[in-house]
Amino acid sequence: MSLLHTVNKSPFESNTLDACLNLAKSGSTVLLIEDGVYAATSGNAVADKIKNTSGINFCVLGPDAQARGIEGKLAEGIKVVDYEGFVDLVAEHDAVQAWL
Amino acid sequence: MPIEANGKVFETDEEGYLSNLNEWEPAVATAMAEAEDCTLTDEHWDIINFLREYYEEYQIAPAVRVLTKAVGKKLGKDKGNSKYLYELFPYGPGKQACKYAGLPKPTGCV
Amino acid sequence: MAKKFMYINRKAPYGTIYALESLEVVLIGAAFDQDVSLAFIGDGVYQLTKGQDTKAIGQKNFSPVYSALGDYEVTKIYIEKESLEERGLTLDDLQHLVWEDEDEDYAEKDSIRLVSRAELADVLDEQDVLLSF
Question: What domains, with CATH codes, occur in chain B?
Answer without folding.
Answer: 3-100 (1.10.10.370)
